[in-house]
């Protein structure tokens, strides 16, 4: 039997592999909504002022990029322990290109629902990972492949056929 004391499995208390995740969302007004996750403080989502919102929180698409970076970090933490990988520090940037459709609405006078989108989701996502490690290039390459293979948010974007580019940069 494998010793799971140093893996992500050490904190699993259930025999079930599939677990439910639940959030609740309340619509406030305009573009604003408030999200409730476990017993955490409320998470407000909104649009910036220039897009008609009150700028009370990030947009849903911005939260998706936050989730991608955070999910990648969590998988790195798990693999760091499992692979005994020297991860001294890591920082993430993510940029997503999406079709706001407002330009086409102004040009044609069409409604939002009448404009055929370039993509219904992100057209392109670029994630940049600044990593501090003493590991050699071969081990870093294997670590990267495993992180991208095992990250649920990477898989979600891949399955949606979003063009995702991940740049890994060694930093001092």
Overview features:
172 residues, alpha+beta, GMP Synthetase, Chain A, domain 3, 2 domains, 3-stranded antiparallel β-sheet, 3-stranded mixed β-sheet, 4 helices, 31% helix
Give a description of the structure:
- This protein is an alpha+beta fold and 172 residues long.
- The chain folds into two domains: 22-57; 59-172, K homology (KH) domain (GMP Synthetase, Chain A, domain 3, 2-Layer Sandwich).
- 31% of the residues lie in helices and 24% in strands.
- It has helices at residues 60-83, 102-108, 137-150, 152-159, and strands at residues 23-29, 32-37, 43-45, 89-97, 124-132, 163-170.
- The strands form two sheets. A three-stranded antiparallel beta sheet has the order 1-2-3, with no helix packed on it. Strands 4-5-6 form a three-stranded mixed beta sheet, covered by helices on one side.
- The radius of gyration is 20 Å and the shape is globular.
Largest sheet: 3 strands, antiparallel
CATH class of the largest domain: Alpha Beta
Classify the fold: give the CATH topology of the largest domain.
GMP Synthetase, Chain A, domain 3
Task: Strand order, main sheet: write it out.
Answer: 1-2-3
The amount of beta strand, in percent, is 15-25%
The N- and C-terminal alpha carbons lie at a distance of 39 Å
Determine Rg (CA atoms, Å).
Answer: 20 Å
**Stretches where pLDDT falls below 50 for ≥5 residues?**
none
- Tell me roughly what share of residues is in helical segments: 25-40%
Total number of beta strands: 6
Tally of individual domains:
2
CATH superfamily of the largest domain: K homology (KH) domain
Structural class: alpha+beta
């Amino acid at each position: 039997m494998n010793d799971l004391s140093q893996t992500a499995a050490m904190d699993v208390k259930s025999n079930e592999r599939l677990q439910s995740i639940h959030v609740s969302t309340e619509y406030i007004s305009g573009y604003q909504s408030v999200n409730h996750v476990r017993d955490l403080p409320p998470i407000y989502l909104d649009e910036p002022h220039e897009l008609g919102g009150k700028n009370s929180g990030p947009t849903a698409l911005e939260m998706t990029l936050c989730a991608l970076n955070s999910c990648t970090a969590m998988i790195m933490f798990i693999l760091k322990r499992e692979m005994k990988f020297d991860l001294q520090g890591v920082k993430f940037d993510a940029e997503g290109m999406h079709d706001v459709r407002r330009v086409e609405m102004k040009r044609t006078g069409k409604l939002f629902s009448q404009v055929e989108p370039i993509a219904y989701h992100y057209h392109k996502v670029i994630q940049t990972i600044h990593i501090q490690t003493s590991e050699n290039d071969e081990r870093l390459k294997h670590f990267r492949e495993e992180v991208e293979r095992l990250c649920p948010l990477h898989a979600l974007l891949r399955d949606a056929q979003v063009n995702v580019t991940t740049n890994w940069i060694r930093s001092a």
